[in-house]
Specification:
With about 140 residues, the chain is mainly alpha-helical. The protein has five helices and two strands. Helix content is about 50%, strand content about 5%. It starts with a helix and ends with a helix.
């Protein structure tokens, strides 16, 4: 309640200051102040009425085992594509064209049996297809 009262009182204070010192306020300050009020009202709403959402959000951030940024420079997607390419004997799953290591970033990963149709979310259910096969699906 005190926070809402602070926001409500800061608006007339800003208007009074603008009334007596209009030369000190450029137009950009009006936008900054409006953005400040709107962002604070959104934060107040979230913490007041969406506490479960905020709690789960902070809990997911705090207990996250995976770092948000990969600091060691190894692209996990590239490693996965390399492994699947080797499992497929360096060939496209559909047309059997050769897969070259320098072109791995062009190839697309797909599920052999889609998850919607009961496929498992596992590396054994993944295939790599070339861009031309991918575009014809």
């Amino acid at each position: 309640m005190k926070y809402l009262l602070f926001l409500i009182l800061s608006i007339p204070l800003y208007l009074i200051l603008y009334k007596y010192y209009p030369d000190k306020f450029e137009e950009k300050y009006h936008y900054y102040f409006t953005g400040f009020i709107i962002i604070n009202l959104i934060i107040l709403y979230l913490f007041t009425y969406e506490t479960l959402f905020i709690y789960k959000l902070f809990q997911n951030i705090y207990y996250s085992d995976k770092p948000m940024v990969n600091l060691n420079g190894v692209d996990q997607n590239q490693l996965l594509k390399t492994q699947i390419s080797q499992n497929q004997m360096n060939q496209c799953y559909q047309c059997h064209n050769p897969i070259f290591s320098q072109d791995l970033y062009l190839y697309k990963l797909q599920y052999i049996q889609p998850l919607q149709l009961g496929g498992v979310n596992d590396i054994s259910n993944l295939k790599m297809v070339c861009p031309s096969c991918y575009s014809f699906q």
